[in-house]
Amino acid sequence: MLLFVKIYFKNFLQSIYNLNTNIVLALDLPPSFQKFLEDYFENKISESQFKENFKNIDYLNIEVVLEIIEWAKMNKVKVFTIGTDSELFLKILNNGLKGLSQEELSKLPEIDILNPPYKKYLSSLFMASENLQKFNFENFYEAQVFRLEDLAEKIKKLLEIFNSKQLIIFIEKDLIIKNWELPFYLQKRNILDFKIINFN
To answer: Residue ranges of the Haem-binding uptake Tiki superfamily ChaN domain (predicted)?
Structure first.
């Protein structure tokens, strides 16, 4: 099954590339991975050294992500990370936005925590999970909103930098299946021309 998925993603990318070579890829990986990507593309680190950095990533199918990166390297397609700083996310998860220093707050995108449908959805997840209930719900909610605002802001910046290219983003399905998740935060930034493809 995994082999099929890997082949499917490569074929998907290749089919787009055959129609338009003017593309850029974005992956939901932490900012620190950008340097690893660049070093790997420039052959400054080996494949095994590169893969070693993925051992603590558990929210993505790493085998598929690595196939996407290999395809991009082979075709000389730029890849950028748009994920959230995990340390900052954990600080908000544990202490809320109020627990951040002024310096940390200054680095955040504008955050609008008024998203009732999303809050209701997260509340249902929170109440159903003993693991999540170890946290304060408001802090949990603020951390999730921060993640989506941060993703949307980074996507906006990439679109501004590469305004003549087609941007292809690979991200967790759970962040895009509802209109009040990432699509809401993209639309808030007047990013309206996008298509969501759910590979299941």
So the answer is: 29-169
DSSP per residue over 113-156, as a string? ---HHHHHHHHHHHHT-TTGGGS-HHHHHHHHHHHHHHHHHHHH
Q: Which of 27, 54, 81 is the last residue of a domain?
A: 81
pLDDT tens column, 20-65? 999 999 999 999 999 999 999 999 999 899 988 887 777 777 788 8
Residue carrying structure tokens 């290219």: 165
pTM: 0.90
Euclidean distance between CA atoms 60 and 196, whole angstroms: 17
The reply to whether 105 and 73 lie within a common domain is no
Q: Measure the CA–CA gap between 116 and 148, rounded to whole angstroms.
A: 15
Which of 46, 81, 116 is the last residue before a domain boundary?
81
- Of the candidates 160, 154, 155, 149, the residue with the CA atom closest to the CA atom of residue 184: 149
3-state SS assignment for residue 74: helix
